[in-house]
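for the writeup, i need someone to sanity check this before i put it in the appendix. the sequnce is what the collaborator sent (i think, or maybe the updated version? ugh). structure was predicted straight from it, no edits. if anything looks off just tell me and ill rerun, i have time this weekend
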Amino acid sequence: MNMSMPARWSLRRTLLALVLTLTVSIWCFSAVVVYLDADTESRELFDQSLSETGHLLLALADHELEEHVELAAPTLTEIHDGKHSKYLLFQIWDGKHRLIYRSAGAPETAFTSLSQESDNQFGWIQMEGQEWRTYSSWNARQNMQIQVAEPSSHRKEISSRFAYKLMLFALLVVPLLVVGLWWSVNRVFRSLQTVANEVSQRMPGDLHQLNLRGAPTEIHPLLHAINRLFERVSQTLEREQRFTADAAHELRTPLAAIKTNLQVIQRARNDEERAEAAAGLGTSVDRATRLVGQLMTLAKLEPPYDKNLILQETDLANLLQPQMAGWQAQAEKAQISFSAELQSGIALIHAESILILFRNLMDNALRYTPVGGRVQVSCGQTDNGVYLRIADTGAGIPAEMRERVFQRFVRLSDATIPGSGLGLSIVKSIADSHHATLALAEGLDERGLGVTLVFPLYAAAVQPAAQSTIPPTLSAQ
């Protein structure tokens, strides 16, 4: 079956494209806004200049008319100035709508209406195939009107010149902008490349922390996550190495005993020696088998065991009750008094794991309790949660050693009963996976060992009638 590979993409190119697109878009939008604003202001300036020119010509013509009142419709001498005729035309009319003055190139017909209402008015006309801007105004005595016309091409020429300059500026600036952004983005990503090079050049066992100095603040969370991963991997490797070394050390003793007993069997001189060696061989094999079984159980409890654990609401008393007959038989065989006080208590637990925990605690209790001693199992529900307690009258564990015994392969220096030192490590791992508290204290009759486990109370299990009296070791915590 063909599996399509996910599309690869470059953060550097994507960021550069986005920044360039955004920057150029904003610049173009700003240029358009500036151009439109400048065009509007230039139009207002042109209109103001046109009106001022019209009022100035009107004042001069009014003065001239006062000195030549006897003349009838004199015509202003035409000035043959190409630029003047190109950029400005004007007409002066009297109150009887007669043309008094006109500039060279100006027609003899009025640009706009000659009515009294057309005072200080701007407008647009079509003349000679192009658009013209007009302005008309009467003098104070309302007997003379001036009409001024200016071609729009002059205004458009200036606006076009301004637009060309903006485009030329863009052609010069955009390449510089592209180069500057490319350099800036590459400089920012250089720190990522430095980290990548540092990681790629490391040896497999090199798990020391990455240096955050010089790295951008935005990638600090990524580097912290990588450092935490390195730390977890380093701890896992250390645990595996320690586990392997301890397991090899512990297996050496039963294997050596097996080899010794085999040699004794081979050299036995009679059936009695052979039977004694065979019994020792069986004991050594049992010890090795038990150790391997506990090692396998402990390996199963390694992370991410607790992440894949499915906890279900279970009545602890109902779970343990079927186990009591078997442990009762083992206790009687060892000549130990066994009692159980199981009361209902519902908690979120993984049944198989709890049975492994219970088996390890009961095995320790029966093995370390002498003949004639007592072992008691109790469980129930309190305000603090659902508890499980196993107490005995055995040798117990000194207070200063009660934290260390949860470590793998740790045993008391004066221990005379064979063991691997893994039972309480297994119990601790299972308790942690259930978020349960685990405490060691004195057992029965103020001697021996009492192990108390408290599971968080399942919220839906409200059973006031089933609540039991909290054990002494629980109340002390």
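DSSP finds ten helices and twelve strands in the chain. Residues 11-67 form the longest helix (57 residues).
thx in advance!!
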